[in-house]
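B., you asked whether I could sanity-check this one before it goes into the benchmark set. Here's the sequence:
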Amino acid sequence: MTEQDEGGGTHAGLPTADAERLRFLADAGLALVSSLDYAATLQQVANLSLGVFCDYCIFDVFDEDGTSHRVAWAHSRPDWPRLREIGDFAPPTDQANYPANQVIRTGKPVFVPNIDDAWMQTITWSESHLELMRFLNPSSGMWVPLSAHGVTVGSAIFAYSYSDSGKHHTELDLALGVELGRRAGLAVLHARQYEALQESAGQLRDMADHQRVLINELNHRVKNTLAIVQAIASRTLRRGVAPEAANQAFANRLAALASAHDLLTREEWKSASVADIIAATVKAHEEEGSGRFVTGGDASRLDARSALALAMALHELATNAVKYGALSVDGGSVRIGWEAPMSRPGEVVVRWQEMDGPPVVPPKQRGFGTQLIERQLGLDGIAAPTIEFLANGVVCTLTLPSL
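And here's what the prediction gave me:
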């Protein structure tokens, strides 16, 4: 007969107490492998241990730095009035005398078969903790390591109470507690390893998704850049333009495009401030310290597409100003201002205004620079760009979507 009969007796020839311990160890082992939620399984084990070799049971789990977290506890009286408070007393790392901290330091159990008030005063770290210990009224206690593969991941407390059974632990109880701690340690370590693997797998999936997004974004940017270069080339190198002048204009426009790309690269191609775009663009057209560009505005930002469009527009305006406008004569200057009007949320308006240049005569035919601003860049994010050839200077207003 391998099961204990109703009147007591033996379990496979073992004394009743030993058979009960074996059944408890089997049930606890089954609970520990039933789930990867180690807090829930430790709570099951805490409940199972009551009456077998303790009146109350507590499980603490440690972080790598030794910080303790109280994850499970149980008392033989489910209505014990201060049961919830047990969870508030995970031992602080600087409390060297507390047995759980001794366990994490040494990886060995602490066995106190007879507990008195004087001993409790040496291991508690506050008046409230001592008061709770006195209310628990332990008669005997075992603090065993939750260890696996040479790593201590926590500790378990198994205690009898004078207020309940009044029993005291034996060396056999300690052996059972250590074996249970070993199995619980394996369960906690395996659960943590599984969590780490899940996190790593998630990170790898996120990295792969991010890589796909980057590749698609790069392809899109390359296509857009090639389209811009193709448009610049077809217009700049058209028939009727002297090769030397066309080459120089083409090189300058590519340099302006490259400058905008450099700025966006520094910003990881997410966005750029209008101030930075303007500063980078006009730098190529102004002698240091000349003060011919006066700029000012708010903290508006543009996405990558609109930033490139603005940089190209400003380059064309500056090139025309150097050739024919305010920057072609001494004393001429350009004012560039921008703002996000409160009456037009989601937009930023950039205004280019030339001053003190030669009298302006509206051109009979739009050049490529003007066409680039009015047509091509209008398709790249600039809404309704306008260029006015006023007698006292060219004025260009660009309205872009802001971030």
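One thing to flag: Residues 171-236 form the longest helix (66 residues). Otherwise nothing jumped out at me.
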